[in-house]
Write a structure and sequence with these properties.
2 domains; two-stranded antiparallel sheet; alpha+beta; Rhopdopsin 7-helix transmembrane proteins; 413 residues; 9% strand; 5-stranded mixed beta sheet; Alpha-Beta Plaits
Length: 413
């Protein structure tokens, strides 16, 4: 009982911390995390048999309906939340195809298991079937986490580890519910896996939420210009774009590289702050990052030019929508300087977009970036402020573009 008591103590501590977080910083994300933690943590404590051991009178209660249904429901909730946390639910076609039927299967399985309980099926058989249904939720969770890593989300590597802990947690707790005698070593491993899963998930959720809050503060001009150093620049930016092209090539999908030119960045000669350009760049980069997501590349080619790369594009319509939203959001004014001395800055932006077909080698990154930059510079003369070209797979072939582009030489880094 000491093993499960220690596990329950950690889960209760995490729940109290999550409750405090919801009370102090109420948001949909924190409320969703709290609900998932309470339901899943409660299911773990229930399956461990700790309540019956602490209060013998509870043995007279028929817990089978709850044990048979809470697991699949928590699995559906956790899988849905993982899709939202990773952002793949709205961006990746494969994950959408897995999550929709998967969540429906888990919910349907919950009602089926409840029907088996009502029909009088033996408890061991019901719990065995429940464990099998939950194993599907674990498998889909691993798939979503691995998919997120494949698409460039470095934070999801830790989520893969959390899903492996979830697998051991599920196997161990259902073995305990079935009354198997696996020994204290196995129960200790199960309790540690449970604690590891919840701790890792809580830390990852808080880290991503903190990142989004920081982006919102940057976009509102509430972060000093020193934060712009976090953007990849120069050779680092080229390497990141090469990685996006390589990932797209490996997955057999196109890539989109765009340059955003800010022509009036140095419009302020007198400003209430020492470095108004830095504040403007921080706010604009945060807006871009919020729109393109954290898996895609956002960098600063030079002071007046942002570069972004959307790797493994599945939906060309969505890629076009992203560029339109970037142009619309960046045209909104930026407050430069602290209140009440802040001055509005109206960015004059234009976008050059290069559609890179599947199979393009990553060595073409510099030329693609230069093409996007030249398109962005000339897009300032266009009414829509957008110029778009498709990259030719054979670099030696002549590219049928405008005369001004045919005479353009690649810019040096």
């Amino acid at each position: 009982m000491a093993i499960w008591s220690a596990m329950a103590g950690v889960l209760v501590t995490l729940t109290v911390a999550a409750t405090f977080d919801v009370a102090t910083r109420p948001s949909l994300s924190s409320a969703r995390s709290w609900l998932s933690l309470v339901l899943t943590g409660g299911a773990c404590i229930l399956m461990s048999g700790l309540p019956e051991a602490l209060w013998p009178s509870w043995n007279e209660i028929n817990w089978l309906p709850l044990k048979a249904t809470i697991g699949p429901l928590c699995g559906a909730l956790a899988m849905t939340y993982l899709g939202l946390w990773s952002g793949l639910r709205s961006e990746d076609l494969l994950v959408r195809r897995v999550m929709g039927p998967g969540a429906s299967f888990l919910v349907g399985g919950t009602f089926l298991l409840l029907g088996l309980v009502v029909a009088g099926l033996p408890a061991d058989t019901v719990l065995l079937l429940t464990g099998a249904v939950n194993s599907l939720a674990v498998l889909m969770g691993v798939l979503i986490a691995v998919r997120s890593v494949t698409l460039g989300d470095q934070l999801s590597r830790w989520m893969v580890l959390a899903c492996l802990c979830l697998a051991q947690m599920t196997a161990g707790l259902y073995a305990k519910g079935l009354g198997m005698d696996m020994g204290n070593a196995y129960w200790t491993l199960t309790a540690c896996a449970t604690v590891g899963y919840f701790t890792t998930v809580v830390v990852l959720v808080r880290q991503r939420s903190r990142h989004f809050r920081h982006l919102r503060r940057q976009a509102a001009g509430q972060v000093p210009a020193m934060a712009s150093a976090s953007l990849p620049v120069g050779a680092h930016l080229v390497a990141r774009v090469e990685d996006a092209l390589w990932r797209s090539q490996r997955m057999g999908r196109p890539c989109l590289v765009a340059a955003v030119s800010v022509s009036n960045l140095y419009a302020y000669r007198e400003s209430p702050v020492m470095n108004p350009e830095g504040d403007i760049l921080v706010a604009l980069s945060a807006r871009i990052r919020q729109l393109v997501g954290f898996r895609n590349v956002v960098g600063l080619y030079h002071q007046r030019c942002f570069v972004l790369a959307l790797s493994a594009v599945q939906d060309p319509t969505r890629a076009e929508l992203v560029t339109e939203r970037v142009l619309r959001e960046l045209r909104m004014s930026v407050s430069v300087g602290p209140d009440p001395l802040s001055l509005p800055f109206q960015p004059e932006v234009a976008i050059g977009v290069v559609d890179v077909p599947a199979g393009t080698d990553e060595s073409a990154a510099v030329r693609i970036i230069n093409l996007a930059e030249q398109l962005a510079l000339h897009a300032h003369d266009e009414p829509e402020r957008v110029l778009r070209r498709t990259w030719v797979l054979r670099p030696q072939a002549p590219v049928a573009l405008s005369p001004w582009l045919a005479e353009t030489q690649p810019a040096s880094l």
